[in-house]
Amino acid sequence: MKDQPIGIFDSGVGGLTVAHAIKQILPGENLIYFGDTAHLPYGDKSEEAIRYYSEKITEFLLSNNSKVVLIACNSATASAFDYLKEEYAGKTILIDVINPVIDYISTRNFKKIGVIGTKRTISSDTYAQKVAAKSPGTQIVSLATPLFVPMIEEGFIFDDISNAIIRTYLSADSLSDIQALILGCTHYPIIRNQINKFFNFNVEVVDSARIVASVLRETLEKNNLLNDKGFLKDQFFVSDYTDYFEKIARMFFEGEINLKKADIWN
Ligand code: DGL
Fold first, then answer.
1. Does the Cβ of 184 fall within 6 Å of ligand 1?
2. What is the pTM for the complete model shown?
3. What is the average pLDDT value for the chain, to the nearest integer?
4. pLDDT (tens digit, 9 = 90+) per residue, 9-23?
5. Residues with active-site annotation
6. Which residue of 48, 163, 189, 225 has the fewest C-beta atoms within 10 A of its own C-beta?
7. The total number of structural domains that make up the chain
């Protein structure tokens, strides 16, 4: 069990920011990553569609011997995590990207925070409901920022276009006086520095990638699942391959990567 890989999935290559954070703190682990590039973006899909995709991908990761499955996508967590947790109860360990952040927020006593994410994540109201339940003294405002994903994927990161989009979204009145901003989408750590800069470094930018990676480490420790046999290999699969996906995958993973196509939809 211990030397089996950690299964990770996202709608595309954004979840590689989480894979990167995992490699930083768990370099001895083997990863198997699946990016559902054929169905990207999940942020605009229905809950029903995302549940169906997420279940199929979980099956793929488990049939490839994953010892745990990490949902590295907020849209998939918001739509499918509770459903998958019931489906796979007692069969595997599932980790998501939202609950670890909610736990972190509950340790900080913030008065007011913001969360940004895709339309699906924000309209699900998952963050707002969970913060209200776990940190009733913290006010949370939610804002959908759907242009960020295509902006980042098109490589507009540190230029006039990204500056204008970031400024336009984050100047929303509702976000005034926030003490922290949750990056509720696994693509967003790519623009973390620009967001920090927009707020003049006065707002804590909460990056789920790092938080989730440490929850994964604790979970592996607790279940005696840390790989003690040494790193062997990482595998990266996508449901639709293009050279472009491979190029941007390197930007998200911050390292060399080879994507393989896995046709799980036929
Ligand atoms: N990375 C996905 C998330 O965390 C967003 C990308 C998409 O819309 O597919 O929600």
1. no
2. 0.95
3. 96
4. 999 999 999 999 999
5. 73, 185
6. 48
7. 2
